[in-house]
Design goal:
TIM Barrel, 6-stranded parallel β-sheet, 3 domains, single chain, Rossmann fold, alpha/beta, 32% helix
């Protein structure tokens, strides 16, 4: 690469979901930190560019075209389990049009022995762990055409990827963060601000990698107070501390006092994840005084033997006492549990759930264990006879003590207690509240002559209207096939708008057409996969408001779609 100014495009694709309101978050904190690091070191050598809010909503074809038009020299992509497949798909397309672009990937998905990342041959450089100390070195190496020996950095070679061995000095948290006066240090458009007071984790949970990368480093109380004050002055009204264990900070008590003082007007609220059994009564009182309206407490299991196997210590007597104290202080508590852990039985999971549900005014989350790349649990999965999906989200399907039927029973128990928010409210009706914002009307008579499917967004509803739709089913099935093949990683809605009642066999044929394609990542969660339902490519029937339809036909169509779509 030449000595000219290099154009760097930071790519972090959002997590797509079925919320028709379109409210989501895709805060590129890592990219912001890396960009600011370049500003500190080599301000005149790089130009950086991020996805705009409009670009985040684009489908893969339109987004790829937009990035190709920018002609970046380097693309730095952040990989999460919810975007890795899609990101690699987009990068492959870009590389076809820009063969000389260099691709650097980072994020939680980068790990040696990843099931498919390195086989894709897409990245030129892969960085595991924090990128601030490594990213400028990697860019300089690409510029000079060399491959330095850097710890946790893999370089693409002719036959494989070569991992380095020499450690790079980890930065303290303060120098890693952008200066608080930086123009980019601000809340999002909803007034939400994110802040680290620690990096690294004191825990060594076997299902997580974060605590294994480095020794923790912390912000002190004065610096935390300063950053919070600046963010409040810039419009922040809600703060989320992204520390894995907020109360692991040695200055935790002083930080709470500082937050209480800076928030005396009580205009702001705070959220954090805590290790609840380690709190003192004074700290719980300070959490409430500072206006922590919600905290999240990871418990995972009530079985000491299970907790020992995953290296997750919990002291149950102070845990219960502190949870009740938090509730009495008016702090909303979310209790996190897991199922699919080594040697965990369905009886133990149910007992843990019922224990958590016995607390009043508590939110309970019970997560499917994920066999994340690079974790100790994934490396030892054969020891515990753990079977998991090879593709994201890598959900545990069974263990030596949990069968697939047990997993389904657990999901049924969870859903019966607290129905998930992401289920479709209505599949058949004159008003469908879950339809996406972009709605493409396709008259059934025009399907065969359609050269390409109109639209541009990554969440799109195709409304197929007309009479005698069953007779036109080949065209309808062809449109479904073309849509999924052209954009396999976006969310589709296939909406029939019939002039009259159609045979339910049409809906069955459409379901079969969708199921013939590889699954989307959101279809692989146990909450969807256990019932073989479809979350990513749903079918709807939009009734004409001026027509009357048989109630029994409407009910049968609704039941059929409820049984197959999520």
């Amino acid at each position: 690469m030449s000595s000219k100014v290099q154009r760097i495009f930071f790519l972090q694709l959002p997590r797509l979901d079925n919320d028709s309101r379109g409210i989501g978050e895709n805060l590129p904190m890592a990219a912001f930190y890396l960009s600011q690091r370049l500003e500190r070191e080599k301000k005149d050598r790089y130009e950086t560019r991020f996805l705009t809010a409009e670009e985040e909503d684009l489908c893969d074809h339109e987004l790829s075209k937009r990035i190709v038009g920018q002609r970046p020299d380097v693309i730095a992509a952040t990989l999460y389990l919810w975007n890795i497949e899609r990101t690699l798909h987009v990068l492959r397309h870009i590389k076809k049009h820009l063969p000389h672009v260099r691709i650097i990937v980072g994020g939680p998905e980068v790990a040696p022995r990843h099931p498919f990342l390195f086989r894709s041959r897409v990245p030129d450089v892969a960085v595991a762990g924090e990128g601030e100390p490594v990213f400028p070195l990697a860019l300089e190496a690409l510029r000079r055409g060399v491959q330095p020996d850097l710890n946790r950095v893999a370089w693409k070679t002719d036959g494989s990827y070569l991992w380095g061995s020499q450690p790079v000095r980890a930065l303290a948290l303060g120098p890693s963060l952008p200066p608080p006066e930086h123009r980019g240090w601000k809340p999002d458009s909803h007034g939400m601000a994110y802040l680290e007071t620690s990096r690294g984790c004191p825990l060594r949970c076997s299902y997580c990698r974060y605590g294994h990368f480095r020794h923790p480093t912390f912000l002190g109380a004065p610096e935390t107070k300063r950053r919070v004050q600046i963010l409040m002055d810039r419009g922040a009204r809600e703060f989320r501390f992204v520390d894995p264990v907020f109360n692991a900070n040695p200055e935790f008590g002083e930080i709470l006092k500082a937050l209480r003082d800076v928030n005396r007007s009580r205009n702001a609220t705070f959220f954090a994840e805590i290790q609840a059994d380690l709190l003192s009564p004074d700290e719980i009182a300070l959490l409430a005084e500072a206006r922590f309206t919600e905290v999240e407490a990871g418990v995972q299991s009530l079985d000491p033997s299970v907790l020992s196997r995953i290296h997750r210590p919990v002291r149950f007597e102070p845990l219960e006492k502190n949870l009740r104290l938090l509730i009495r202080q008016g702090v909303r508590v979310t209790i996190d549990l897991m199922y699919g852990l080594p040697s965990q039985s369905s009886e133990e999971v149910e007992a843990s759930l019922r224990w958590a549900w016995n607390f009043r005014r508590v939110n309970v989350q019970c997560f499917q264990t994920l066999l994340l790349p690079g974790t100790q649990l994934r490396e030892r999965r054969r020891l515990w006879k753990i079977s998991a999906d090879r593709l994201p989200p890598y959900g545990v399907i069974s263990t030596s003590t949990l069968s697939p039927a047990d997993v389904r029973d657990i999901e049924t128990l969870i859903h019966n207690q607290s129905p998930t928010d992401c289920m479709t409210r209505r599949f058949v009706g004159k008003c469908l509240p879950d339809l996406f914002k972009e709605r493409i009307l396709l008259p059934a008579g025009s399907l065969h002559g359609l050269a390409q499917i109109p639209g541009f967004s990554s969440r799109r509803a195709l409304i197929i209207s007309g009479e005698n739709l069953y007779a036109r089913r080949r065209g309808i099935l062809a449109i479904i096939h073309r849509a999924i093949v052209s954009e396999p990683h976006m969310l589709w809605q296939f909406v029939l708008k019939p002039a009259e009642e159609e045979p339910l066999d049409l809906l069955k044929d459409m379901i079969g057409a969708i199921q013939s394609h590889p699954s989307h990542w959101i279809d692989r969660f146990a909450s969807v996969a256990s019932w073989k339902r479809i979350a990513s490519r749903r079918i709807f029937v939009l009734l004409n408001p001026t027509r009357s339809y048989s109630p029994s036909w409407v009910e049968s169509a609704e039941t059929l779609l409820e049984d197959h779509c999520y």
